[in-house]
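User: I'm preparing a small set of examples for a lab meeting where we compare how different chains pack in three dimensions. I only have the primary sequence for this one, and I'd like the structure in token form so I can line it up with the others. Please keep the answer compact; I'll paste it straight into my notes.
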Amino acid sequence: MLDSDAPIEYTVYTDWERRWRTMPVTVIGSREARAKWRILLDAAHSGAADVVIERSGKPVAALIPYADYAALLDELDDLRAARRAEMALAEWRRDPRRGTPLEQVEAEMRAAGLLDGGE
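Assistant: Understood. Below is the structure token output for the 119-residue chain.
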């Protein structure tokens, strides 16, 4: 899969995950990833493997083919919007006084042309 003289670690999946996985996943520490960047980039680009880069044993980034990334942009936007909404809700739960009444939000959106009058 990867051309290198040093071994690469692989993630161990449950039987269910392994059955449905179609692309091998290479897991590598950030220090080793820096040393093998070209090899990892070629592996992701060619579709030989997705690459998960870890820092201190925890996954922090994934390297995937650009075509896959482009195909996932809408889902990524939804995921990131949901994450921002969860953070805003958690912040509001810590201090409800920081919230803005819905009527005020709607008025500001109408004034900016982002919301029709009948909605």
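A couple of notes for your slides: The chain has two domains: 9-69, 72-111. The longest helix spans residues 73-94.

User: Perfect, thanks.
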